[in-house]
Specification:
11 helices; Aminoglycoside 3'-phosphotransferase, Chain: A, domain 2; single chain; alpha+beta; Phosphorylase Kinase, domain 1; six-stranded antiparallel beta sheet
Length: about 375
């Protein structure tokens, strides 16, 4: 793979380039790129994994519209701090370069920034809330129908249950008997999860532009001030419900253990992080969210944790056809960890709802 040849396809000047692998992402291959002529010019070159993101054109269409809207709004508000990435076009004016069975994009590099893979302090959770909340706030007036649904039914729990039931019926890997406890756990919660999705499907809450992958390491902080600077990894940006972004962020931020923790007794939730994230998020969004959205925020943590657990469990029963695994029971281990986390969230459900209500009224 000739990286310099790929770099030369984009509008980044002439001459030689420095480049090296960058980041810890599991989906796209990423390289940090600097020009030798102007060392201050920095970019990110990414190979888009078109096995995961099959609609590359739709993905880049969404990303282009969203980043341009963000830049326009930040300029309008004279916001000198918060940023967004810029897509560097190819020399033919395209948003991405298609090589031999590969797709590439070039983005500006956000300098003087850092990201955390794991939250270790309240202020980190707060700044993550600010970042994802501001992302929602800035996009609230962008036409939702201008974006494409690049991953259909991504958070549709009815669709996920359909896949789950098919996997159980087929039982191609002969694993169903080893996951009876987890299967029953999922079935017990099916009515509540379907009811949550019905509220989205019936338009009881607005369709918004959502990020759909709100891990804390998708927030860049200013290296000097440690303040929220930029939301990155926009591959999954598309129409959705605000619950998806809030719930998935809570799922990853409040967990005291790894997503695939084997020792289930280590799994608990950090309520201080939950409150800090909620404060940051609602500081930016309380004025724009409907009461129905506010009322469902706390439960969205249960919904998003459940949907991840169900996806892991489905993949385990189906024979590990989607997620990469380190051992034969890895997906079952992941599902068990997510369901244990869900049980902990259920134990704190009333308290989590109270936090949302208190913070909402403080900011509205």
């Amino acid at each position: 793979m000739d990286i310099e040849k790929i770099i030369s396809q984009f509008c980044v000047g002439e001459g030689k380039f420095f480049y090296k692998p960058f980041g810890s992402g599991h989906i796209n291959d990423t390289y940090a790129v600097r020009t030798k002529a102007r060392a201050q010019d920095a970019y990110l070159l990414q190979r888009i994994n078109h096995q995961v993101f099959q609609d590359v054109e739709g993905l880049m269409h969404n990303m282009h519209l969203v980043t341009e809207h963000l830049k326009e709004k930040l300029s309008l508000h004279n916001d000198q701090h918060f940023k967004t990435v810029t897509i560097i076009p190819t020399r033919q004016g395209a948003l991405y370069y298609q090589g031999e069975n590969s797709y590439w994009r070039m983005l500006t590099f956000i300098s003087n920034s850092l990201a955390y893979d794991v939250v270790t302090a309240d202020w980190q959770a707060f700044e993550a809330g600010v970042a994802f909340g501001k992302f929602q706030q800035l996009l609230q007036d962008m036409p939702v129908d201008s974006l494409k649904e690049t991953i259909p039914d991504f958070h549709n729990i009815a669709y996920r249950f359909d896949n789950f039931d098919k996997a159980l019926t087929r039982d191609v890997a002969k694993r169903k008997a080893t996951a009876l406890q987890q299967i029953q756990f999922a079935r017990d919660r099916k009515p509540a999860m379907l009811a949550m999705y019905a509220r989205v499907n019936n338009h009881e809450v607005p369709v918004r532009i959502t990020h759909n992958d709100t891990k804390v390491n998708n927030v860049l902080l200013d290296r000097h001030t440690q303040k929220a600077l930029c939301v990155i990894d926009l591959d999954t940006v598309m129409p959705g419900a605000v619950w998806y972004d809030f719930g998935d962020a809570v799922r990853t931020i409040v967990n005291t253990a790894a997503e695939d923790e084997k020792a289930l007794d280590k799994i608990a939730i950090n309520m201080a992080y939950y409150k800090a994230f909620t404060c940051g998020f609602l500081q930016q969004t309380a004025h724009m969210l409907t009461y129905a959205e506010i009322e469902g925020l706390a439960f969205s943590a249960q919904y998003m944790t459940f949907i991840m657990g169900l996806r892991f469990l489905t993949d385990y029963i189906a024979g590990d056809i989607y997620y990469k695994t380190k051992h034969p029971h890895h997906n079952l281990q992941r599902a068990s960890a997510q369901f244990t986390l869900l049980a902990k969230i259920e134990d704190h459900a009333k308290e989590m709802q109270q936090v949302v209500q208190q913070v909402y009224h403080q900011n509205y």
